[in-house]
Amino acid sequence: MKNVVLIGFMGTGKTSTGRALAQRLGRAFVDLDRMIEEEAGRSIPEIFASEGEAAFRALEREAVRRTAKRRALVISTGGGTVKDAANVALLKENGAIICLTASVDVVLARTAHVGDRPVLDAKDAGDRRQAVADLMAERRELYDVADYSVDTSDLSPLQVVDDIAAYLKREGVFRA
Ligand code: S3P
């Protein structure tokens, strides 16, 4: 059975949606960021601070390589996972790719806390809204690899899960 893979910018709800969707579908859930943190024994900001982004991306590639091989999972990725074309190819091989989106203001509200997201913090030269808007614009095309996309800005978590479950049913990815 195919995996269901959630991609999208930071703060679009990939982790919370993934967990709820897995429960709905009766599937196991893997959050790549948590997997990396558990295996490294350090938080993502700590990995960025001590070893740099390249080291984090190497851990991320390794986590994708191992997870994409498995079956019938719901997988939440990090916002930058799709920057690597090899990651996208592996995830697509056996996965339906769902992109979550949200408006700049919604993402800004969900990522306001400084210290949790090193890529956004590095981009933030004092105007965090501008940093979100710029990074989102830079990355927009990366998320076009998705088979289906949901704008989560005005939806409750339950509505997002309902929307994705209906899509998967239409596509025959699951038949519950
Ligand atoms: C990143 C997003 C983060 C995490 C890391 C890098 C990015 O995940 O993987 O901080 O480059 O966009 P979330 O999208 O879950 O915040």
Summarize the SSE layout with pairings:
Layout: E1 3-8, H1 14-25, E2 28-31, H2 32-40, H3 44-51, H4 53-68, E3 73-76, H5 85-93, E4 95-101, H6 104-110, H7 118-123, H8 128-139, E5 148-151, H9 157-171
Parallel strand pairs: 1-3, 1-4, 2-3, 4-5
The structure holds shikimate-3-phosphate.
Residues 10, 14-15, 33, 44, 78-80, 117-119 line the site of shikimate-3-phosphate.
Total of helices: 9
Distance between the termini: 13 Å
Largest sheet: 5 strands, parallel
- Unreliable spans are none
What is the approximate shape? Answer: globular
Q: In percent, how much strand structure appears in the residues?
A: 5-15%
Rg, rounded, reads: 16 Å
Q: What structural class do the secondary elements suggest? A: alpha/beta
Helix and strand sequence: EHEHHHEHEHHHEH
The chain-level mean pLDDT equals: 96
Which hetero compounds are present in the coordinates? shikimate-3-phosphate
> What is the strand tally?
5
Output the strand order for the largest sheet.
Answer: 2-3-1-4-5
Helix content: 40-55%
Explain briefly what this protein structure is.
With 176 residues, the chain is α/β, with parallel strands linked by helices. It has helices at 14-25, 32-40, 44-51, 53-68, 85-93, 104-110, 118-123, 128-139, 157-171, and strands spanning 3-8, 28-31, 73-76, 95-101, 148-151. It has a 5-stranded parallel beta sheet with strand order 2-3-1-4-5.
List key phrases describing it.
alpha/beta, 176 residues, binds shikimate-3-phosphate, 53% helix, globular
Could you explain the architecture of this structure?
Helix 6 (104-110) packs across helix 8 (128-139). The protein has 176 residues and is an alpha/beta fold. It is built from nine helices and five strands; from the N terminus they run βαβαααβαβαααβα. It has a five-stranded parallel sheet. The protein binds shikimate-3-phosphate (S3P). Shikimate-3-phosphate is lined by residues 10, 14-15, 33, 44, 78-80, 117-119.
